[in-house]
Amino acid sequence: MAKFVYKMQNILELKYKLEEQAKSEYSQAMSELREEEKKLDTLNARKNEYQAGLKEARSGKLILGEIRRYEQSIYTMEIMIENQVETIEHCKQLVEHRREKLNEVMMERKMHEKMKEKQFELFLAELNEAEKKEIDELVSFQYNKPADSREEF
Question: What pTM value is reported for the model?
Fold first, then answer.
């Protein structure tokens, strides 16, 4: 029996490897985004602590140095938060870029898989045709034998 060999199997294997690499890059970008979002949450929590400290400092005995320290800390946190938001936006763009790349690579792999499938179907059809032809030849050979050489049952 004939064996099916896909001529572009090495390209398909390469597409599998590229897809795995793209998945890995996408996963890495997502984990970086989550990490940066955690940092933003931490900064917001620290800012909230400073705001609570400022409110408490203003409501109790007024110590100007302490109030200024809280105000400066809040201002610093706001700047850090703005920077972190920009970092998160950059990470989101990177994630989107990696997702698009992954989709593109997956579509290429699927296209090659479909090509392999179609070639396999063609191979099966050719194999079936060859089998039919062989059976027809065998039947016509037996039918066209001279009557005296045929065995009767």
Answer: 0.74
